Amino acid sequence: MPKKLDLHPPENLSKKENVNEFDTSHKRFSIDILKTDPYTLRYKALNEKLSLFQLSYILYHIANHKGTSSIRSFSEDAKVKIKENTETAKHAKKLIETMNAKNYLTFG
Questions:
Q1: Angle at CA 25, nearest 5°, toward 49 and 43?
Q2: pTM (2 d.p.)
Q3: Which of 5, 54, 86, 95 could form a disulfide with 50 if both were Cys (CB 3.0 to 4.6 A apart)?
Q4: Among the residues of the chain, which ranges form H helices?
Q5: Taking a C-beta distance cutoff of 8 angstroms, is the pair 54, 39 a contact?
């Protein structure tokens, strides 16, 4: 049977400063992890082993920031959608070229 991982926050969790009611990260992660930039951790994870709390913070951050820029209204005109998709395709092509030129491993 696989080992069960305990990802619950420690009992002595330090409180994050200036917390708003919608931010639940302070209930899940220590102040030390919350002070770390999640993008820095994502880069570090490409070549180093992270703690379970660091890894769970990365996944938490990704889950909370997925899809927000792709929300669209269903009442848009078809011509506007075609133009938008064309522009998006141009940007995607440029991004892939840049990633290949700089040997980036991920988008993040």
A1: 30
A2: 0.49
A3: 54
A4: 25-28, 31-34, 38-45, 52-64, 78-101
A5: no
